[in-house]
Amino acid sequence: MSPSVRNVIAWILQALLAAMFIFSGFNKLSHGPETAKMFGSMGFPEWFAYLIGGAELLGGIGLLVPRTVRPAALGLIVIMIGAVWVHATKIPGGLLPATTDKGFQPNGMPAMVLLVLLVVVYLLRRPVARLA
């Protein structure tokens, strides 16, 4: 893959992921008490909701700054590994999508897709050796 194509793909993914994480983090923080209660019901301390919301917001912004793309992606990868684990162990329905009487329930699929896309961005933004 040529460096220019790789760069375009990386920027598109970074912009989409940044928008998703900025929205998700802002949503967690703006609905703090409800989010904290939900985290508490899963056995986490309620302050953890604010930590995750802030980390998602900052990580989303970090995906848009060239110097911080890889550290931001790495931090968000850790968060998404945790999200996948929570979906697999603590949320009814687990990871796989299902159709219920309430309609289609994606369950943990969005978390897994975001995790894979973050890994792709992390790999696309790795340093490349320059040819002399």
UniProtKB/TrEMBL annotation:
Belongs to the DoxX family. Keywords: Cell membrane, Membrane, Transmembrane, Transmembrane helix. The chain crosses the membrane at residues 7-27, 47-65, 72-88, 108-124. This is DoxX family protein. InterPro entries: DoxX, DoxX-like_oxidoreductase. It comes from the Bacteria. The keyword Cell membrane applies. The keyword Aminoacyl-tRNA synthetase does not apply. It is found in: Cell membrane. It is a multi-pass membrane protein. Pfam families: DoxX_2. Its main location: membrane.
